[in-house]
UniProtKB/TrEMBL annotation, chain A:
GO terms for molecular function: NADH dehydrogenase (quinone) (non-electrogenic) activity; quinone binding. Its EC number is 7.1.1.-. It is an enzyme of class 7 (translocase). PANTHER family: NADH-UBIQUINONE OXIDOREDUCTASE CHAIN 4L, NADH-UBIQUINONE OXIDOREDUCTASE SUBUNIT ND4L. The gene is nuoK1. One of its GO terms (cellular component) is plasma membrane. This is NADH-quinone oxidoreductase subunit K. InterPro entries: NADH_UbQ_OxRdtase_chain4L/K, NUOK/Mnh_C1-like. It comes from Planotetraspora phitsanulokensis. The chain crosses the membrane at residues 6-22, 29-52, 64-85. Belongs to the complex I subunit 4L family. Residues 102-130 are annotated as: Disordered. NDH-1 shuttles electrons from NADH, via FMN and iron-sulfur (Fe-S) centers, to quinones in the respiratory chain. The immediate electron acceptor for the enzyme in this species is believed to be a menaquinone. Couples the redox reaction to proton translocation (for every two electrons transferred, four hydrogen ions are translocated across the cytoplasmic membrane), and thus conserves the redox energy in a proton gradient. NDH-1 is composed of 14 different subunits. Subunits NuoA, H, J, K, L, M, N constitute the membrane sector of the complex. The keyword Transferase does not apply.
Automatic annotation (TrEMBL), chain B:
PANTHER family: NADH-UBIQUINONE OXIDOREDUCTASE CHAIN 5. Its main location: membrane. It is found in: Endomembrane system; Membrane. The chain crosses the membrane at residues 6-22, 43-63, 113-133, 145-163, 169-187, 199-222, 234-252, 273-294, 306-324, 331-349, 355-377, 389-412, 438-459, 491-509, 515-536, 616-635. Residues 98-145 form the NADH-Ubiquinone oxidoreductase (complex I) chain 5 N-terminal domain. This is NADH dehydrogenase. Residues 162-432 form the NADH:quinone oxidoreductase/Mrp antiporter transmembrane domain. One of its GO terms (biological process) is electron transport coupled proton transport. It comes from the Bacteria. One of its GO terms (molecular function) is NADH dehydrogenase (ubiquinone) activity.
C-alpha cells in the first residue's frame, strides 16, 4: 500500500479535528476533536513506522504512549467538563470566558467574585499604609 | 601671641556651640515655663562670659601692641596710619591646606588695623549681649538668638584677624548666614522672613563678585595670604578687575548703592541685632576689607573713582530717605547707609585713616543710637515716631544717651562724630580724584541733610506733645505696651557704657582737625537742623518732613529703588520661573505622562483580542503557525 493513502486520511482526520477544536461550541465535541487529531497523528506514526521498516518500531511504541496519554487526558477533560457543568449548567465554550480581560459583557457571572477582590485590595492598601 | 588671637576668635564660637547645644541640656526639651527661664539664664551666661573674656584678651592685645617696639615680635611693619598708635603686630599660620594650585594657609594676623576694629567689635558685641538679656527677656528662643549673636561676633572677629583671604571669606560668609538667621528671628511674621531672605540674597549677589575678586587677586599673586597679595607685583589690569569685583562684595555687605536695599528691611530683626549689624559687624566688614587691602585699591584708581561716585550717590540719597521715614529704626538704617557712604568716600579720597576713624566713632554712636532706640521702642511699644513724642521726661537716661548719639551723628562738637566726619570731609576736600567735586558737594549737602533728619528724629521722639497710646496687643518685635518706666537696668548699662566713646572717642583725632572745613560742615549741619527746628516750632504736632513737599513720598519710598528692582529684576525672574515651571509641567511631565497614556491606548487595542474565548486563541496560534510554516517554505 502506498504511503499516500494513510497520510491523506490522517491529514483529513487532523483537519476535521482542527475544525472541531476551532468551531464547535460544545466542550465535549471539542474534546472529541482533540481525540481526532491525536488519532490522526497515531495513524501517521504507524504508517510511517511500517513504511520506513523501523526495526525497533519506534512509531508503534510512541503510538501506544499517545493512546495512554490520550486516555488520561480525556478522563481529565471530561472530569473538568462535568465540574464546569455542575457549576454553570452549561458547557458552551463560547460562554466560558473567565479568562477575558475585565470589562467585556460576558463576565457578568464574575460579579460575585468582585467584592472579594475589593476586600483583598483593601487589605493590601492597609498593609502598604502601615 | 597668635594663640591669644585664636582664643579671641574661638571663644565666641565656643559660646555659640555651647549656647545652641547646652542651654537646655540635660533637662531636655520639655518646654515648661520654669525650664524656659532656666535655659534663658544659662544661655545668657554662655553668651556673655566668653565675649567678656574675648574683650579682655583684645584689650590686652591692644596694650601689648601699643607697647611693642616698631620692630616687634613679627616682621610686619609698614607706613600705615596705625603704625604710630599700635605698632606691634603678629602673625601665625595654624595649618596650610594644599589645594593643588594656590595653597590656603589658615593664618591669623593681628596688627593695628585688626586690633582697632577688633576692640570695636567685642565692645559692641558685649554691649549688645548684655542689652539683649533685658530686651529679649520673655522671648522663648532667646538661647538660639544669643548663640547666633556669638557666632556672628566670632565670624566678624575671624574676618578682622584673618591673615588669608580665603579664611577671611569664610568669616564673611558665616556673617551672611548669621544676619539671615537673626533678621528672621521672629519668622512667624511673613514679612520678617522675607526681609531675612532679601538680606541674604542681596548680600549673596555681592559675595559672588567678592569671591571672584579674591580668586583673581590670589591667582595673580600666587598666594592668598594678605601680605603676599599686597606685596605682590600684580599687573594693573588684573588689579582693577579684582578690586572692582571686591567692590561688589563691599557694596553688598556695607549696603552701598546699588545693593543697599536690604539694610532698611533688615530692621525686621530685634533692635539689638540692628545695633550689632549696623555698628560693629556686617556693614563694617565691607569698609574694613577695603582698608585691609588698601594698597591694592590705591593701585587701581578707576575702582576708587567708582567707589567715590557710589558713595556720593549713596550718602545723599540715603540721607534724604532718612529724612522722610516715620519708623525710628528705618531712620537709623538709612543714616547707616549714609554714614557708610562717608567712609567709602573717605576711602575713595585716599584716606583710609579718616574712614577707619569714622568707622570706629560711627560704630560707637550708632550702636548707642540703636540701643537707645530699642529702649524707646521697648517703652512705647511701637516703632513709629508718630506714636512717640515728649519722652524726655519719662525716660531721661535714654534721652541723654540718644542725645549724645544724635549729636555725634550730626557732627556737633564735642561728640565723636564731629572729629571723624571732619576728617573724612577734609580728606575728600583735599583729594585729587576726578570724582572729587561731585563727592565733595554730595558730602557737604549730606551733612546738612544729616543734621536735618537727626534733628527731626530727636524732636519727634523726645519733644512735643506725647502721642503715646497703649497698643491693644503687642506684635512680636515690640515687647511691651506702654508702661511709663525706664527700661530694665541690663538695657541701660550698655547705653551708658557706649555713650562714653560716642562722646569722647573723637578727641583721639583732635590734633588733626582741619578747622576750616570743620567750621563749614558744622555751619551746614546747624543750618539743616535749624530749618527742621523752625518747621517743627511752627507746628509741633506735625511731621517736619512735610517741608519736602511733593518730594516727600519719593524720599519715603527711598526713591522707588525697591520698586524699580522689583520691576526690572524680580518680576521678570519670577515670570521666567513660572515659565520654566509651566514648561516642566507641560513639556517634560507631558512627555512622561503622554508616553504612559499612549501605551495604555495601544494596549487597549491589543486587549481586544483577549476576550476569554479559548478557541480564538487557538485560531490565532494556528494562524501564526501557518504563517511561519509558509514563510519557512517560501523563504527557506
Amino acid at each position: 500500500m502506498h504511503i499516500v493513502y494513510p497520510v491523506v486520511v490522517s491529514a483529513l482526520l487532523f483537519s476535521i479535528g482542527v475544525y472541531g477544536v476551532l468551531a464547535r461550541r460544545n466542550a465535549i465535541l471539542v474534546l472529541m476533536s482533540v481525540e481526532l487529531m491525536l488519532n490522526a497523528v497515531n495513524l501517521n506514526l504507524v504508517a510511517f513506522d511500517v513504511w520506513l521498516r523501523d526495526r525497533l518500531h519506534g512509531g508503534q511504541v510512541l503510538t501506544l504512549f499517545v493512546i495512554v496519554i490520550a486516555a488520561a487526558e480525556i478522563g481529565l477533560g471530561l472530569a473538568i467538563v462535568l465540574a464546569v457543568y455542575r457549576n454553570r449548567r452549561s458547557i458552551d465554550v463560547d460562554r466560558l470566558r473567565d479568562l477575558a480581560e475585565g470589562g467585556s459583557p460576558e463576565v457578568s457571572q464574575q460579579s460575585e467574585a468582585s467584592p472579594d477582590r475589593a476586600a483583598v485590595g483593601e487589605d493590601a492598601d492597609r498593609e502598604a499604609r502601615s | 601671641m597668635i594663640s591669644v588671637v585664636a582664643l579671641i576668635v574661638l571663644l565666641p564660637f565656643a559660646a555659640a556651640v555651647a549656647g545652641l547645644l547646652g542651654s537646655r541640656w540635660p533637662r531636655g526639651g520639655s518646654r515648661t515655663e520654669e525650664n524656659d527661664r532656666a535655659a534663658a539664664r544659662r544661655a545668657a551666661w554662655f553668651a556673655i562670659a566668653p565675649v567678656t573674656a574675648s574683650s579682655l584678651l583684645t584689650l590686652w592685645l591692644a596694650v601689648w601692641s601699643a607697647r611693642a617696639l616698631p620692630r616687634g615680635s613679627a616682621s610686619y611693619t609698614g607706613s600705615e596710619f596705625w603704625a604710630g598708635l599700635l605698632p606691634g603686630s603678629t602673625e601665625g599660620t595654624l595649618t596650610v591646606v594644599d589645594t593643588g594650585s594656590v595653597p590656603i594657609s589658615v593664618t591669623l594676623r593681628a596688627d593695628g588695623l585688626s586690633i582697632l576694629i577688633g576692640v570695636l567689635v567685642v565692645v559692641v558685641a558685649l554691649a549688645v549681649q548684655v542689652y539683649s538679656v533685658g530686651y529679649m527677656r520673655d522671648d522663648p528662643r532667646y538661647a538660639s538668638y544669643s548663640a547666633f549673636i556669638s557666632l556672628f561676633t566670632s565670624a566678624m572677629l575671624l574676618v578682622v584677624y584673618a591673615g588669608d583671604l580665603i579664611v577671611l571669606y569664610a568669616g564673611w560668609e558665616i556673617m551672611g548666614l548669621c544676619s539671615y538667621l537673626l533678621i528672621g528671628h521672629w519668622w512667624e511674621d511673613r514679612a520678617n522672613s522675607r526681609a531675612a531672605v532679601k538680606a541674604f540674597l542681596v548680600t549673596r549677589l555681592g559675595d559672588v563678585g567678592f569671591l571672584f575678586g579674591i580668586f583673581s587677586l590670589g591667582m595673580a599673586a600666587g598666594s592668598f595670604r594678605i601680605d603676599a597679595v599686597l606685596s605682590a607685583d600684580i599687573p594693573r589690569g588684573t588689579l582693577i578687575t579684582a578690586t572692582m569685583l571686591l567692590l561688589a562684595g563691599v557694596a553688598g555687605k556695607s549696603a552701598q548703592v546699588p545693593l543697599q536695599t536690604w539694610l532698611p528691611d533688615a530692621m525686621a530683626g530685634p533692635t539689638p541685632i540692628s545695633a550689632l549689624i549696623h555698628a560693629a559687624t556686617m556693614v563694617a566688614a565691607g569698609i574694613f576689607i577695603v582698608a585691609r587691602l588698601y594698597p591694592a585699591f590705591l593701585g587701581a584708581q578707576p575702582t576708587l573713582d567708582v567707589l567715590g561716585v557710589v558713595a556720593a550717590v549713596g550718602m545723599l540719597g540715603a540721607a534724604l530717605a532718612a529724612l522722610a521715614q516715620n519708623d525710628l529704626k528705618r531712620v537709623l538704617a538709612y543714616s547707616t547707609i549714609s554714614q557708610l557712604a562717608y567712609m567709602a568716600g573717605g576711602l575713595a579720597a585716599g584716606s583710609d585713616k579718616a574712614a577707619i576713624f569714622h568707622l570706629l566713632t560711627h560704630g560707637a554712636f550708632k550702636a548707642l543710637l540703636f540701643l537707645g532706640a530699642g529702649a524707646v521702642i521697648h517703652h512705647v511699644g511701637s516703632n513709629l515716631m508718630s506714636h512717640m513724642g515728649g519722652l524726655r521726661t519719662s525716660i531721661p537716661f535714654t534721652f541723654a544717651g540718644m542725645t549724645i548719639g544724635f549729636a555725634a551723628l550730626m557732627g556737633l562738637p564735642p561728640a565723636s562724630g564731629f572729629f571723624s566726619k571732619d576728617a573724612v570731609i577734609a580728606a575728600i576736600e583735599h583729594s585729587h580724584s576726578p570724582a572729587q567735586p561731585f563727592l565733595y558737594g554730595a558730602a557737604l549737602l549730606t551733612v546738612g541733610v544729616t543734621g536735618a533728619y537727626a534733628m527731626r528724629a530727636w524732636l519727634r521722639t523726645f519733644f512735643g506733645p506725647s502721642r503715646v497710646e497703649a497698643l491693644p496687643e503687642p506684635p512680636p518685635g515690640t515687647a511691651h505696651v506702654f508702661d511709663g518706666r525706664e527700661a530694665p537696668r541690663s538695657m541701660l548699662w550698655p547705653i551708658g557704657v557706649l555713650a562714653v566713646p560716642a562722646l569722647l572717642l573723637g578727641f583721639a583725632g583732635v590734633s588733626e582737625v582741619d578747622w576750616g572745613s570743620a567750621l563749614v560742615s558744622l555751619i551746614v549741619a546747624l543750618l539743616g537742623a535749624g530749618v527742621v527746628y523752625t518747621f517743627w516750632r511752627g507746628a509741633p504736632h506735625q511731621d517736619p518732613a512735610r517741608m519736602l513737599g511733593p518730594f516727600r513720598t519719593a524720599c519715603e519710598r527711598a526713591f522707588y529703588v525697591d520698586e524699580a528692582y522689583r520691576a526690572v529684576f524680580a518680576r521678570p525672574i519670577l515670570r521666567l520661573a513660572h515659565g520654566v515651571v509651566r514648561a516642566d509641567r507641560q513639556v517634560v511631565d507631558g512627555a512622561v505622562r503622554g508616553s504612559g497614556r499612549l501605551t495604555m491606548g495601544l494596549s487597549g487595542v491589543v486587549r481586544l483580542a483577549q476576550n476569554g474565548n479559548a478557541q480564538l486563541y487557538v485560531t490565532g496560534l494556528l494562524a501564526g503557525l501557518l504563517l511561519i510554516t509558509v514563510a519557512a517554505v517560501v523563504l527557506g
